[in-house]
Design a protein that fits this description.
The protein is mostly helical. The two termini are 13 Å apart. Helix content is 70%, strand content 0%.
């Protein structure tokens, strides 16, 4: 299993969903998504003056976006193009999490119904499954 911590968070999200605890389901889903965000940042060589696991989402997203933009610069190679496609796909899945869900759930600004919780949980699982095709959780996640 490439993402054991994120997988456990998704299982917790599913348990919360099963009991009708939709806000908790979204919270657990965002915890799983954060594991993926950290893994992508680590994969791309994001370095900060403090550990990645202490970075907020905004900082990590900015650093990842900068790395992806730099991939678009010459020279172009097939490997670089494949990496760009993978990272861009991952970010397309992730990008809306922060503003649409994470900020609202972390700061008690929203309530979620069954349909919304299911959708968020499914998108989170899709994000982690995509990452798992090429990445593993970094050691700092354990």
């Amino acid at each position: 299993m490439n993402f054991p911590t994120a997988s456990a968070e998704i299982i917790h999200a599913g348990n919360c969903f099963a009991f009708g605890e939709y806000i908790a389901c979204v919270y657990q889903s965002m915890s799983a998504a954060e594991m993926g965000l950290r893994a992508l940042a680590s994969h791309l060589g994001v370095t900060l003056p403090y550990p990645i696991e202490l970075a907020d989402w905004g900082k990590l997203l900015g650093e990842i976006e900068e790395k992806i933009q730099n991939m678009q610069k010459p020279p172009k190679t097939a490997d670089k193009d494949e990496e760009l496609s993978f990272c861009s796909d991952a970010m397309a899945l992730f990008r809306h999490f922060k503003n649409a869900y994470r900020n609202h759930i972390a700061h008690a600004r929203a309530h979620y119904d069954e349909r919304q919780a299911q959708s968020i949980m499914d998108r989170t699982r899709e994000f982690i499954e995509l990452l798992a095709t090429q990445l593993k959780e970094p050691d700092f996640v354990e």
